[in-house]
Amino acid sequence: MKKLFLIFVFVISSFAFDWSGKVNWAMNYESAKRIAQQTHKLIFVDVALSKCPPCHYLATKVYTVPKVADYINKNFVPVLIIYDQENTPTEVSNYFTGSTPTLMFIKPNGELEARFIGARSPDDFYKLIKSIQDKYKAGK
């Protein structure tokens, strides 16, 4: 019985997935919005599905890259929404296209600054989020 249990745990753990990478995700959108209003940072929203291969790619191959994670943690208030597992805030739903991953950059006042769909390589992702941040800072 103990061997069966261990096999079961091993099989389940092999399908388990860590979405966090090295990014310091906010607990939910409302807390991200409060922090963004205090810090004047963009809210970086990743809307993903639990069985979305490009979403998993971002989580395992992009958010784990120190350069990318450090830039996100320093310049944005990141929040991850697993669309098929949790309620999506109305403000986010208004900008969601239905495709995943949808990555949104929302101003502290709730206005959409930028949005893109799909995964990118770590270098391309870094360049893209840096250009979004640079544009946001220039427009302030």
String of helices and strands: HHEHHEHEEH
Secondary-structure arrangement, i.e. CATH architecture:
3-Layer(aba) Sandwich
What's the β-strand tally?
Answer: 4
Strand content: 15-25%
CATH topology: Glutaredoxin
CATH superfamily: Glutaredoxin
Indicate the low-confidence ranges by residue numbers.
4-17
User: Which structural class matches the secondary elements?
Assistant: alpha+beta
Number of domains: 1
How widely separated are the two ends?
A: 63 Å
What's the story with the biggest beta sheet? Answer: 4 strands, mixed
Rg for CA atoms? 16 Å
Spatial sequence of strands, sheet with the most strands: 2-1-3-4
- Write down the overall geometry: globular
CATH class: Alpha Beta
Number of helices: 6
Calculate the mean pLDDT score and round it.
88
The proportion of residues forming helix, as a percent range, comes to 40-55%
List descriptors.
140 residues, alpha+beta, Glutaredoxin, 6 helices, 48% helix
What does this structure look like?
It contains 6 helices and 4 strands, in the order ααβααβαββα. It is α+β, with helices and mostly antiparallel strands. The protein has a single domain, classed as 3-Layer(aba) Sandwich (Glutaredoxin), CATH 3.40.30.10. It has a 4-stranded mixed β-sheet with strand order 2-1-3-4, sandwiched between helices. It is globular.
Short characterization:
The chain has 140 residues and is α+β, with helices and mostly antiparallel strands. The protein is built from 6 helices and 4 strands.
